Amino acid sequence: MRERPQQSYLGKILLIAWREFRHTALTKGFIFGAVALPVIMIGVIAVIPKMLTEKVPPLVGEIVVLDPTGTVLPRAQEILVRKRSMQEKLDDLAENPPADTGSRLDAVAELSAQDEQRIEVTWRSGAAGETAESLKTMLSKGSLIAAASIDAAALDPAKDATAFELFIPSSLSPKHVGQISRALREAVEEERVARSGIDKALLARLASPPAPRTLRISPEGSEAKENTELRFIVPAAFMFLLWICVFTSANYLLTTTIEEKSNKVMEVLLAAASPMQVLAGKILGYSAVSAVMLVMYGGLGIAGLSAVAMMDLVPVLHLVYLAVFFIMAYFMVASMMAAVGSAVSDLREAQSLVGPVMMVLIVPIMLWMPIVQNPNGMLATVAGFVPPATPFVMILRLTAATEPIPMWQTIASIVWGFACALGMLWLAARIFRVGVLMQGKPPTPKELVKWAFVR
Amino acid sequence: MERRAGPATGWMGRRSHRLLFSFSACSQQWPWRARGVATLAAPMASTNQTPAVRIERVQKRFGQVQAVKGISLEIPERSLCGFLGPNGAGKSTTIRMIMSIIAPDAGRVEVLGSSAIAMKDRIGYLPEERGLYRKMKVGEFVGYMARLKGVHPTGLARRIDDWLERLALPGVSKRRCEELSKGQQQKIQLLASIIHAPDLLILDEPFSGLDPINGRLVTELIRSEQARGATIIFSTHQMHTAEALCDKVVLINKGEKVLDATLSELRAKHDDRGLVCEPRGDARAFADRVRTEGIALATRVHDNGTVDLDLADGHDADSAMSAVLGLAPMRSLALRRMNLDDLFVELVGAGDGEIKKGARIDA
Questions:
Q1: Contact at 8 Å (CB) between B327 and B285?
Q2: Which residue of B has its CA nearest to A13?
Q3: How many CB pairs (< 8 A) connect A and B?
Q4: Which residues of B121-140 are buried (b: 16+ CB within 10 A; e: fewer)?
Q5: Is residue A439 within 8 angstroms of chain B, CB to CB?
Q6: What is the CATH number of the domain that holds A193?
Q7: I need a labelling partner for B226 at 20 to 30 A (CA). Which of A67, A393, A454, B148 fits?
Q8: ipTM above 0.95 for this complex
């Protein structure tokens, strides 16, 4: 028998890992995608508001105000056409945020509108004999865009402000409703102020509280202007970075595994390496892809921050946490994707298996605001210990500057998270071993469990 | 030989010298290595007459279908064995069990004195369904497979180019696999299975989808691999290729082995008891005379004017030939050769008849 060199166990794993890396990360597609994605995102952020501002719907029609004192109408008329400053619009938006997405977009559009909205509104006070009931009939016939009935009591400064009635037809857009009701409300308010004899300007001065100039004093004694918005955004940036890097490469892992199965390359591969070697090689290979992305995007972010001298937002400890939770997140998500990829024979079948897992992983994205605002709240604490979400929630909690979380929780989540990651890896290996040679219909969850636990 | 006799550490040493990182110091404690050594060393040290493949009473069931019903066979080293059988007979399942790609429900499989898992690097395998990485370049793909099987990277590219030339695919090394035709892809995959000069070569339907020229090329390749010292198993349903190539044929039908013999055994059994004659005159009259003269027990007259005779007990081939020549002038006269095609139909056809009958009743 001839002398025959053999490939070692680890050697095969490394070869497989290198091939996966080489044919994923070192391809034109990947490099283009990695560069193009941020460019496209910036483009979208710049272009979308422009598209939104294109058209502000004009407000045209007749409004009737039933007002026994006759003082509200002229004020409302004036307020409606008065050009409001940006700050007023912002304050108003913050006070009364529109309920649905459509009107929210409208509001944003109005904020950034360059061209003036066309307003052609005829105001008239109620004619003799007109009542709320007759106005309602007119509205339903479509001859008015709004009608209001103001109680004299609402204008009395000695009493608590009471509601007035505003009738609108069913077809009026929420944006116009907002404009009309605001004009009327402010008119009532002005009237109340005028009747009380207080100077309006004085009132405005008194009502606006002094704003603090917040300075954060670091342990070294340096002062930095506090930037609250950024302190909310930084944890989200950490989490999204983690999310994008882990999911992009885990998705590659999923699709290439399915491709190898449907291409029948898998059988050739398994004649050369064991399922465990194939799995280990693939997970290792895509961990490198993932790490490259993390370093690239993370590096870009840090470069950007240091360019504007805001590196104090990202302490070194946070970068350490990022690395730790990145490894945890990668192994959790990659094991799931490998298991699913080995079990199904096309991408559509994979979707239905990945679906429930994705629901859990969307949680940190949906809840980033509450978690960052209250990193020690019940929600954040519990979510931090729910396995596939653990690394994402923990990175949010740990980088949220509002309040430090207890050390024991950090350590416990790391230990627990890695234990879960290992468990998931073990399960994935069991499923992969069986699934990779299966053809035909996708397994039911029950069968998956059988593959994992039955020898 | 050295390797078999050598202590486990020697084998290990050779393995580890090629590691990308050197783990030789700690490798002996690794459980998977220790296991590998045990299964390797024990049977191999015993004898060199171990068959390349031995399977004993293997069974495999897929759901309701019993795909393999207790097949046993031995394939001697350096032999060229054909697995024959109709579609769905269980050939590929048997091959996949030999490769340890699927585990048998019962029975034992021994490959190269061990298992296909431990012997991966010494086995070349061409699966029934062809698979290549579509976006990978041909040279890269073959190189990757070779490296996985332990071929040293030095000179590998050169070796691949030489092989591609031999397979009448010069210069495709830099092309992507998906750019090749189906036949070309099949040759590439065959190359990937023999690039590491395996001791055992298992080819599932290597001829399907090949034109006659490429078919001949692959035939030559299989012969040269055998000459190199490899044991070869291939499955096919082309009887004439099997007849031309094999030392040994195994016929599988409905999950059972219905024939297992060397080709020379088959010839000895089926060859000599018949003649094929082409008389000049009336074939029917000739056939009647042959029977009345007591040369043949039975005759079959074919439309093309040839007559098949089954020899009578008192005659051997030589005496019958001279007797037949005495009866009528002959255009041709030949010994009736064993024909695998006929044998196949004879052994398998009966079963198919049953199925047809069943189907009719159902309808």
A1: no
A2: B148
A3: 101
A4: bbbbbbbbebbbbeebbbbb
A5: no
A6: 3.40.190
A7: B148
A8: no
